[in-house]
UniProtKB/TrEMBL annotation:
Belongs to the glucose-6-phosphatase family. Its main location: endoplasmic reticulum. PANTHER family: GLUCOSE-6-PHOSPHATASE. The chain crosses the membrane at residues 7-29, 35-57, 132-153, 159-178, 190-209, 240-258, 270-287, 307-327. Pathway: Carbohydrate biosynthesis; gluconeogenesis. It comes from Neogobius melanostomus. This is glucose-6-phosphatase. GO terms for biological process: gluconeogenesis; glucose 6-phosphate metabolic process. Pfam families: PAP2. It is found in: Endoplasmic reticulum membrane. One of its GO terms (cellular component) is endoplasmic reticulum membrane. Substrate binds at R61, R152. GO terms for molecular function: glucose-6-phosphatase activity. InterPro entries: Glucose-6-phosphatase, PAP2/HPO, PAP2/HPO_sf.
Length: 336
């Protein structure tokens, strides 16, 4: 049972958006830039849609629902085991599941890339090999998704129907957003306007519902009341923390791609790209250790925005620029 717990805990952690921004994106950006752009856009748009619709659906989470419902009457309430990642504070409705992260990163994106190579194949043998690789990759992804689904239910964070709905809508959003050609050549103004619009819409929608008497922070009270360990309730799982992180990521991508320091690593060799990936991952690991006090919510949200922006800038601009300068200096030294 302990092994099962570790497996499910690992699966939930890997499928989190945090892993997308701090691990998957730096790797994909320096190997296949278009794939990395799709990854960020699908993650941000999907999670934003998830946030907005969560406020309407009022989804429950198992770990507090069993204590609040009248379903069991006088019968004993099921004893659900809780874990450090169980006590998420947002509504439980997964209109757009975190599972899209894995779907896009290693499933739909890579499978579609391989499918393109099949169509462009120079021989039947090459096409067959790529097709088998595509089928094998998709089969592995299916198994991984199954484990992640089971982990979300096992951790008492979601009901089975929420996980299934999350997968279906996650696939739909990933497919729709991936088809938008504008995301591959978006200008800085496009990124800024999109960030401002998404943020303004979410905040405006929140204020509108609040003015109508809807308590959108009801889940915070439930989480604090029924989580067996108060220290497991973190502000970074709150809706606005998620919103500001995602908006910081999108803003950082726009600033990074259009910075005067930006260096397109596609024109560089694999040694340069691998160096960028390695250094970026190390710096992001260090940055990830930067935590903030949740005492002041506005400060916490602002710093979360800044941290997410910096994380993307490290991968897209700062590391490639610094490494390029180092190589340029070395070349000048050799010539002299």
């Amino acid at each position: 049972m302990d092994l099962l717990h570790r497996l499910f805990n690992l699966a939930s952690s890997v499928a989190d958006l945090h892993t997308t921004f701090f691990l998957f994106f730096p790797i994909w950006f320096h190997l296949r830039k278009d794939t990395a752009l799709r990854l960020i856009w699908v993650a941000v748009i999907g999670d934003w849609l998830n946030l907005v619709l969560k406020w309407v659906l009022f989804g429950e989470r198992p770990y507090w629902w069993v204590h609040e419902t009248r379903f069991y009457g006088n019968d004993p309430v099921p004893a659900l085991k809780q874990f450090p990642i169980t006590c998420e504070t947002g509504p439980g409705s997964k209109v757009y599941s975190r599972l899209h992260n894995l779907c896009l990163s290693f499933g739909f994106v890579t499978c579609s890339d391989l499918h393109y190579k099949v169509l462009q194949g120079t021989s039947i043998n090459t096409s067959l090999c790529v097709r088998f690789l595509q089928m094998g990759l998709c089969a592995v992804m299916g198994l991984v998704l199954l484990i992640v689904c089971m982990s979300r239910v096992y951790m008492a964070a979601h009901f089975p129907h929420q996980v299934i709905a999350g997968i279906l809508t996650g696939i739909l959003v990933a497919e729709v957003v991936s088809q938008l050609k504008s995301i591959y050549s978006a200008s800085l103004n496009y990124y800024i306007l999109t960030t401002v619009f998404l943020t303004s819409f979410a905040v405006g929608f929140y204020l509108l519902l609040k003015a109508m008497g809807v308590d959108l922070l009801w889940t915070m009270e439930r989480a604090q009341k029924w989580c067996v360990h108060p220290e497991w309730v973190h502000l970074d799982t709150a809706p606005f923390a998620s919103l500001l992180r995602n908006m910081g990521t999108l803003a950082g991508l726009g600033l990074g791609l259009h910075s005067p320091l930006y260096t397109d690593t596609k024109k560089r060799g694999y040694a340069f790209r691998i160096g960028c990936i390695t250094i970026a991952l190390v710096l992001l690991y260090v940055l990830d250790g930067w935590t903030f006090s949740p005492d002041n919510h506005m400060t916490f949200y602002s710093l979360s925005f800044g941290k997410s922006t910096l994380a993307i800038l490290i991968s897209t601009t700062l590391v490639p620029w610094a490494l390029y300068k180092v190589f340029a200096i070395q070349k000048e030294d050799k010539k002299s």
